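User: For my dataset I need records formatted as: sequence, then structure tokens, nothing else. Please produce one.
Assistant:
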Amino acid sequence: MTKDTLRVAIAGVTGRMGKNLVLSVRESGYALVGGTSRAESPIADVRIASDLSELIADVDVVIDFTHVSTVARHAEIVSEARVAWVLGTTGLSAIDQAAVVVASERAPVVQAANFSPGVTLVERLARQMGAALPAETYDAEIVEMHHRQKVDAPSGTALSIGAAVAAGRGVTLDAVREPAREGHCGARSTGGIGFAALRGGQIVGEHTALFTSAREQIGLTHRAFDRRVFSDGAVMAAAWAAKQAAGLYSMEHVLGLI
């Protein structure tokens, strides 16, 4: 497949991430067929549709950074059309995730909370550190900071990093996740994975995984300076996904790490 033949649709094309995706797709030389949006504000030379079904017959891949309320609908559409789906929407319920898994049985799906190559490597290293550093002696904490407009906490990326640490330790994040601490919350549990979420200014995204023992601390940090790192990574994933068989993939697959 050449750049000239890769046809891309962007779900949520008029949003903050959508506008960056338009730039990334065009700079990569791929064909932007159009995008979905509930907003009336147009983007130059972009076909706008109210529903993904209006575009799906003309595309090879859909890049989707929208809202959890659209996931089940989009999963049904890409599954029926067998079109590749790059999904960056976070905060999915168990039912939403089940719909993604079903879609991946008929279409290639790349799902990630963060499409930065650097974050993908941080998650991989966090898994290795979780395995190497005993939970009994190394307390794991994930600290994240984002712009003041972000509405969810902790971030999907923070949860992914925490899940990677938990996987390295042979447990699930749900089993060891500690809620945000406030007031008289008691002592820290052994083996727990804590989260702290900070908000302010226009910070694109900062994530740090801390492993702290009584004698040392190791920190693993990623800082994003420009949102284009996410949209560029998503377009990289789109080009990769369009060549794959049906299945559920991650950015580690895209980068050739697994």
